[in-house]
TrEMBL record:
This is protein-L-isoaspartate(D-aspartate) O-methyltransferase. CDD domains: AdoMet_MTases. One of its GO terms (cellular component) is cytoplasm. SUPFAM superfamilies: S-adenosyl-L-methionine-dependent methyltransferases. NCBIfam families: pimt. Pfam families: PCMT.
Amino acid sequence: MVNASLVLSPRVIETMRAVDRKHYVRSTADAYIDAPMAIGHGATISAPHMHATALEHLQDVLQPGMKALDVGCGSGYLTACMAHLVGACGRVVGVDHIPALVNLARQNIARDHPDFLATNDSSDSGGNAANVDMAKPRVRLEVADGRVGFPAEQPYDCIHVGAAAGARPTALISQLKAPGKLFAPVVCAPHDLDQVIILYEKDYQGCVTETELMGVRYVPLTDPERQTRGF
């Protein structure tokens, strides 16, 4: 991905090396193939190039001490990448509406970076210590309907959505800090397969701009029943 210029930032390169994808996929032999892979329960882990794209666009709101929300945390891979970027005094909340996937994410992160789930005792705040409670672990994983975000810990500097929203994700935008960024695939036509990544950017005054980045194909951001029966 570096050779293909998909990853240009040294921070993102270092992060994707530090968070080993082999701990988040079913088959370690296929861990580094640039393709999405099924993880069960109608969910997938996105292709590495999509993780790289998301991190490149969000890295400036994933600085040490910042707070992020990962909607549809699935395998836990991108949650862990975000946690690596925000550092020991940052905070990442990962939510999924399927309990088995939340458990999977917790197991995967515990295997790869158990310190992310341990109580935070570092003083390296990067100037943003006010964003987090130092007694809390760097990563919090919860069963929740990601379509409504996770209001209990709002506002967030950064929100990533790992499934395609059916419309403009207003509830998530409202949980962004000013400034803040939201990276989300959104259905752009009546059919679920017509999707585009939109980067929502909220400025200091709370005004939101939208930038279409690319066409994509993600599983829908939907209810558990629809997801597990194959949409």
